């Protein structure tokens, strides 16, 4: 082992880590100073009042806290997208990769230690230890390949649908697990669609990839989609089926529809990043500057814990402790508490993403925007085929979260500029990316509208 190189890399990594930490701390301090300034009159009155005791009321403290949090939101949104921050982050991650590479080449069992760390973290996540399957709507597994499964949901109270219904295949993203679409009996997209009395629901579950699946590519995942479509068509005796894709699952759905337009009846795109030149979220900015090739060469996959950390670092106060403060404030609301626990259990049960797939999505989509430029190539039937979104002419419904901080609404809405469809609809929902699945407004208004749209076509 080259100790000089290791020492230099370690010290540089520490330096860049401190620089990144300093940016966060500076944001917190500026946000606090601004909040106190905004609340100065109330603070002074509170400190001078109360018979000279100098006490500050709980309402004043709460007001300062809320102003601070709002200021942090605004400051981080700008700072974490800046060229200064992203260049530091890119260099920092590169140094960490170099460090790991030095240890690996010296013969240290870094892969084994990674697996041990993942096991340790998962075994100590309280929420993840609660069984998930008990909350799910009833289904049958009608297809398996590798870790992937095709689930066919049963109509409630029936072993099978009694009347012919329109088949709908839901393609979930390879990030986290599909359980967010069927969180619990009160917050379930699957149940909303099942009760529409006209839809036959299938869902493609990617399972839990591990180190043995690092080789899986975009073509492999599209192969699963193709197999699922064949199974659904065979079971329902339909020549065409409707497809709903969520986030990266929508990218799979789009590519399948472009390559196989004759198989698709309707296409629903739920918070799908499409034109990546318009995706201006923090994670999109980071994805465009980090060396994904070096990362996948070193790790072989995108680790689930690293994804969790990336989501958290977009706004540590908001996602790290404020939500738990809100939980303690609403412990009297049993439905809120149950849903909170269900979301936390889903949020921190993050499977790894196979390295080849992750590399393709980041490079082809986020960095080079090939999905809309027509430059994306997919191997099909032994030859490369260009993905041409103009070949999509079926009815398309775009579901957009107005406050989505994972996929910019403008990126999703851009689909209508690239397809040939005459029937193009948009449904906007207040709230963020995950709120599409769990908010009361979505279950009350959005999903009945989606079902109505599908059944009318």
Automatic annotation (TrEMBL):
Record keywords, A-Z: Acyltransferase, Transferase
Pfam families membership: Abhydrolase_1
Domain AB hydrolase-1 intervals: 189-435
InterPro entries cross-referenced by the UniProt entry: AB_hydrolase_1, AB_hydrolase_fold, PHA/PHB_synthase
Gene3D superfamilies assigned to the protein according to its UniProt record, in alphabetical order: alpha/beta hydrolase (3.40.50.1820)
EC number: 2.3.1.-
A GO term for molecular function: acyltransferase activity
Group of enzyme by EC: transferase
Entry protein name: Poly(R)-hydroxyalkanoic acid synthase
Organism: Nitrososphaera gargensis (strain Ga9.2)
């Amino acid at each position: 082992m080259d100790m000089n190189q290791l020492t230099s890399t370690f010290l540089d990594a520490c330096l860049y880590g401190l620089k990144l930490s300093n940016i966060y701390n500076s944001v917190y301090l500026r946000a606090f100073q601004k909040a106190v300034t905004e609340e100065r009159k109330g603070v002074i009155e509170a400190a001078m009042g109360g018979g000279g005791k100098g006490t500050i009321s709980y309402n004043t403290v709460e007001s300062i806290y809320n102003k601070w949090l709002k200021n942090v939101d605004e400051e981080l949104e700008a700072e974490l997208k800046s060229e200064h921050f992203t260049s530091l982050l890119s260099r920092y991650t590169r140094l960490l990769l170099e460090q790991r590479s030095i240890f690996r080449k010296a013969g240290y069992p870094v892969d084994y230690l990674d697996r041990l760390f993942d096991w340790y973290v998962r075994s100590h996540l309280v929420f993840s230890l609660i069984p998930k399957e008990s909350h799910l709507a009833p289904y049958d597994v009608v297809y398996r390949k590798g870790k992937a499964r095709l689930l066919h949901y049963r109509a409630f109270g029936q072993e099978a649908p009694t009347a012919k219904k329109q088949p709908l295949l839901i393609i979930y993203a390879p990030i986290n697990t599909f359980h967010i679409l069927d969180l619990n009996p009160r917050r379930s997209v699957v149940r909303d669609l099942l009760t529409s009395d006209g839809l036959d629901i299938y869902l493609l579950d990617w399972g839990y990839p591990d180190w043995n699946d690092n080789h899986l590519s975009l073509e492999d995942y599209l192969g699963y989609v193709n197999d699922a479509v064949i199974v659904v068509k065979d079971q329902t005796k339909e020549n065409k089926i409707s497809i709903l894709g969520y986030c990266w699952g929508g990218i799979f759905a789009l590519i399948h529809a472009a390559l196989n337009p004759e198989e698709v009846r309707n296409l629903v795109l739920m918070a799908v990043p499409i034109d990546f030149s318009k995706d201006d979220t923090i994670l999109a900015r980071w994805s465009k500057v980090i060396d994904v090739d070096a990362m996948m060469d070193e790790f072989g996959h995108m680790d689930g814990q690293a994804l969790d950390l990336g989501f958290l670092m977009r706004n540590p106060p908001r996602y790290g402790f404020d939500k738990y403060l809100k939980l303690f404030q609403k412990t009297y609301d049993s439905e809120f508490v149950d849903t909170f626990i269900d979301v936390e259990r889903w949020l921190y049960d993050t499977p790894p993403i196979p390295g080849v797939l992750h590399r393709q999505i980041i490079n082809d989509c986020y960095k080079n925007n090939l999905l809309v430029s027509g430059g994306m190539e997919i191997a099909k039937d032994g030859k490369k085929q260009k993905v041409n979104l103009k070949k999509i002419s079926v009815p398309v419904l775009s579901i957009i979260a107005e406050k989505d901080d994972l996929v910019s609404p403008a990126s999703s809405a851009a689909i209508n500029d690239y397809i040939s469809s005459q029937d193009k609809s948009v449904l906007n929902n207040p709230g963020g990316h995950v709120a599409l699945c769990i908010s009361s407004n979505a279950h009350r208004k959005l999903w009945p509208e989606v079902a109505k749209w599908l059944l009318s076509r």
